[in-house]
From TrEMBL, chain A:
Keywords: ATP-binding, Nucleotide-binding, Nucleotidyltransferase, Transferase. This is Sulfate adenylyltransferase subunit 2. Heterodimer composed of CysD, the smaller subunit, and CysNC. Belongs to the PAPS reductase family. CysD subfamily. It comes from Planobispora longispora.
UniProtKB/TrEMBL annotation, chain B:
Pathway: Sulfur metabolism; hydrogen sulfide biosynthesis; sulfite from sulfate: step 1/3. Coiled coil: none annotated. GTP binds at residues 10-17, 87-91, 142-145. GO terms for molecular function: ATP binding; GTP binding; GTPase activity; sulfate adenylyltransferase (ATP) activity. It comes from Planobispora longispora. GO terms for biological process: hydrogen sulfide biosynthetic process; sulfate assimilation. This is Sulfate adenylyltransferase subunit 1.
Length: 304, 420
């Protein structure tokens, strides 16, 4: 008899694991939601959710924490995708949190709404009584994230306690919580940036245009290229110039940098990433540069 | 390209961080900004060399105290394979973290300092690796440069460890002499050890055969979620009823006769559905949706198997349990929640037969309880039947977790033995 080789490709293994995680959540929690920003990781996560419950619709709503400082291309994409799926989108607005006096807008040249998002997110989780929240974070992104569980427990205050995490064995996830607590769930924990792009290519998934090379007015700050926009305070020593750039990550427009690139297709992006020597967050996120433990500190407070 | 998940065991002194750093660096998985951050921190602390452990020690407390607190997952890839490293700390809560990291590992690397030879902790690492049934074990004899690349020293260590491993029923065992610091036999074969004819460590990791480590014999499909679209607008979907889950064993094909547990009713697989279309076969670790020919009342926590090859439906379990909390102890009459495959029940500890000394393998039958990081043989009674196999036969249908009913914390990990 011919011996069949049951080797499974890395993308198939990662996809099967992520589908398993999503189904566990749908089975064990009453009110899950999926964070959808229109960024590539959440786009992949949304495709996995489609697959996990097909031919039934995705059995939970999507949520976007909207800083109000968006790339219009991404918001257009977000709304179109939500409509295609017939999904329900909850928009939690940082502007609303500011107007309600829950948070105070930062001022000065480096003002950003990045940190304010945490309050908006936690308030929305509480208001909607979400007990499980899917996030697209990956362990390869950042060293504090390398130690986070797939099912990451959050207390009543939405806080993460890295020293007191639940052990996670085999494919068994502990979904037990009390009312008011919740679990952040990361189905893409074991994916790398390259896996995400390989998957986008394999599945032919559409992504917002800003991921591809385009011409844009930018200025340089801390070695990053930031786009000119109404919410950013640019100094006299930060002249604007036109450059061909693309985005490696999509976040708040005031702190997400572009990289110089001519990659116009997913294949070219993959070639570029395979050759790059700088991490995506290191290249493009001012928010992570604040200190050695910037991500850990925000995560403890309840950040994504 | 497939995935190899491996766990690394050893303390900082054994050169574990150096080894991981070298694998990541040589496979270009460390980026310039990460390396710059590590170099900056090393300098600030007055360390003369670039401390690669800073790459994995990501939490503030870890950097401040110079220790690793938790399992860290690291990723790298070569053109042949993607690798997921579960890097477990050497000192604090060792057993708990190593058990966690080993539970999903295809392979474990145990580091031994060539100067010190097989130590108590090497035996402990080997024992835990075999207890968790990691299918492949690599003994990396490190710091060969400090013993003049001596073949004699390497053979001594190999003999001593082989003798010990035979008592453990150790799986596939490979010995590789390396110098993580200088790179000997890590990525490419060393010129310094012409007497060594085996593979370099990376070559071994790239080529070790893991596809047949999964159980492809015993069909086990724990039902995870029932898919019923119930869309009145689409008559084709109106009666759709699919059983979603991740295959835990065996190979399923459309037309196969299958049995549902607990009902014991038999039917056939009508089709194996996925979003990308029906498939001709399903095996671990695929996540699929089964449609069956007959209407049977099936819900989450049930099991689909073959009529002539069933798991044991057990309410009395025998298991090796690792206790993972210092907030309480496990002893007779302890009540817990048990999660096994997709089924959750309550469990009562009937008996603690013995506590195992993980260093000497001595069985302490007088033990009254298990504390943090202790392992023992336990009898449990559960409130509803679990569909189990021996852990040695199938890690997915033989493993379970225990959850404290007051704190909701995961407090124990169990491996079923003598299923009946």
């Amino acid at each position: 008899m011919l011996q069949r080789d049951y080797t499974t490709s890395q993308l198939d293994v990662l996809e099967a694991e992520a589908i398993h995680i999503m189904r566990e959540v749908a089975a064990e929690f009453e009110r899950p939601c999926l964070l959808f920003s229109g960024g590539k990781d959440s786009i992949v996560m949304l495709r996995i959710a489609e697959k996990a419950f097909w031919p039934a619709p995705i059995p939970f709503p999507l949520m976007h924490v909207d800083t109000g400082h968006n790339f219009p291309e991404v918001i257009e994409f977000r709304d179109r995708r939500v409509e295609e799926l017939g999904a329900r989108l909850v928009v939690a607005s940082v502007q609303d949190s500011i107007d309600a006096g829950r948070v105070v807008e930062e001022t000065g040249r480096r003002a950003s709404r990045n940190r304010l998002q945490t309050t908006t997110l936690l308030d929305a989780i509480e208001e909607n009584e979400f007990d499980a929240v899917f996030g697209g974070a990956r362990r390869d992104e950042e060293k504090a994230r390398a130690k986070e569980r797939v099912f990451s427990f959050r207390d009543d205050f939405g806080q993460w306690d890295p020293k007191n995490q639940r052990p996670e064995l085999w494919n068994l996830y502990n979904a037990k919580i009390r009312k008011g607590e919740h679990i952040r769930v990361f189905p893409l924990s074991n994916w790398t940036e390259l896996d995400i792009w390989d998957y986008i290519r394999r599945e032919g998934i559409e992504i917002p245009s800003i991921y591809f090379a385009h011409s844009r007015a930018v200025f340089e700050r801390d070695g990053m290229l930031l786009a000119d926009n109404p919410w950013i305070t640019r100094g006299d020593d930060e002249p604007l110039f036109e450059a061909v750039v693309r985005y490696r990550t999509v976040g708040d427009a005031t702190c997400t940098g572009a990289v110089q690139s001519s990659a116009g297709t997913v294949e070219e992006i993959i070639d570029e990433i395979a050759a790059t020597r700088i991490t995506e967050r290191g290249a493009t996120r001012a928010d992570d540069r604040a200190s050695e433990a910037a991500m850990e500190d925000r995560k403890r407070e309840g950040y994504f | 390209m497939d995935i190899l998940r491996f766990a690394t065991a050893g303390s900082v002194d054994d050169g574990k961080s150096t080894l991981i750093g070298r694998l990541l660096f040589d496979s270009k998985a460390i980026f310039e900004d990460q390396l710059e951050a590590v170099e900056r921190t090393s300098r600030d602390r007055g360390t003369e060399y670039t401390d690669l452990s800073l790459l994995t020690d990501g939490l503030r407390a870890e950097r401040e105290q110079g220790i690793t607190i938790d399992v860290a997952y690291r990723y790298f890839a070569t053109p042949r394979r993607k690798f997921i490293i579960a890097d477990t700390p050497g000192h604090i809560q060792y057993t708990r973290n190593m058990v966690t990291g080993a539970s999903t590992a295809d392979l474990a690397i145990i580091l031994i300092d060539a100067r010190k030879g097989v130590l108590e902790q090497s035996r402990r690492h080997a024992f835990l690796t075999t207890l968790l049934r990691v299918p492949h074990l690599v003994l990396a004899v490190n710091k060969m440069d400090l013993v003049d690349y001596s073949e004699e020293r390497f053979e001594e260590i190999r003999e001593e460890f082989t003798a010990f491993a035979s008592k453990l029923n150790a799986p596939d065992l490979t010995f590789i002499p390396i110098s993580a610091l200088l790179g000997d036999n890590v990525v490419s074969r060393s010129q310094n050890m012409p007497w060594y004819n085996g593979s370099s460590l990376l070559h071994h990791l790239e080529n070790v055969h893991i596809a047949s480590d999964r159980n492809l014999v015993d069909v086990r499909f724990p039902v995870q979620y029932v898919i019923r679209p119930q869309r009145a607008t689409d008559p084709a979907l109106h009666d759709y009823r699919g059983y979603a889950g991740q295959v835990a064993g065996g190979v399923l094909k459309p037309g196969d006769e299958v049995m549902h547990l607990p009902s014991g009713l038999s039917t056939r697989i009508a089709s194996i559905d996925t979003y990308d279309g029906p498939v001709e076969e399903a095996f671990a670790p695929m996540s699929v949706t089964l449609r069956l020919e007959d209407d049977i009342d099936i819900s989450r926590g049930d099991m689909i198997c073959r009529p002539n090859n069933q798991p044991h439906a057990a309410q009395e379990l025998e298991a090796m349990v690792c206790w993972m909390t210092d907030a309480s102890k496990l002893g007779p009459r302890t009540k817990l929640t048990i999660k096994h495959t997709t089924r959750t029940a309550r469990a009562l500890v009937r008996d603690l037969h013995y506590r195992l000394d993980v260093n000497t393998l001595h069985r302490d039958e007088a033990a009254q309880s298990l504390g943090l990081n202790e392992i023992g043989r336990v009898s449990l009674r559960v409130t509803q039947p679990l569909f189990v196999d021996d852990y040695a036969r199938n890690r997915l249908t033989g493993g379970f977790i225990l959850v404290d009913e007051s704190t909701n914390n995961t407090v124990g990990a169990g491996m079923i033995v003598d299923a009946r």
